[in-house]
Design a protein that fits this description.
Layout lengths: L3 E4 L1 H9 L2 H16 L11 E2 L2 E2 L2 E2 L4 E5 L4 E8 L4 E9 L4 H12 L3
Parallel strand pairs: 1-7
Antiparallel strand pairs: 2-5, 3-4, 5-6, 6-7
């Protein structure tokens, strides 16, 4: 089953700000995850987040593209088969988690 994919407007800007090569890699990774975005404990690709570096991201999942140094934070909307990308960003200093938390608050997710 393929899940419907949505992006927060800011996540679309994150994607647009990546280099073309990074966009290709992220797009490929998101398409792969979209086929099974469930948490790893349920046989999917997502790694659950919790409280990390002062952020409260319980209920959200991440995918790390280690070689590229990129993280993707997303949420499954289980009432439907929908996956919402919250942030795409570089792995430096866990800033991506702080951005995710501020966007979650902003969009009342």
């Amino acid at each position: 089953m393929t899940w419907e994919l949505k992006y927060l407007p800011e996540a679309e800007k994150d994607f647009d700000s990546l280099s073309r090569n990074q966009q290709i890699i992220v797009d490929k990774a998101i398409k792969k995850v979209k086929s099974n975005p469930l948490p790893q404990r349920e046989g999917g690709y997502g790694k659950p987040l919790g409280h990390k570096m002062g952020t409260k991201l319980t209920g959200y999942l991440k995918v790390k593209l280690r070689k590229e140094g990129i993280r993707i934070v997303y949420k499954l909307i289980r009432t439907e088969t929908k996956m919402l990308v919250v942030v795409i960003g570089m792995r430096e200093d866990d800033e991506v988690y702080e951005i995710a938390q501020s966007r979650i608050k902003k969009h009342d997710l």
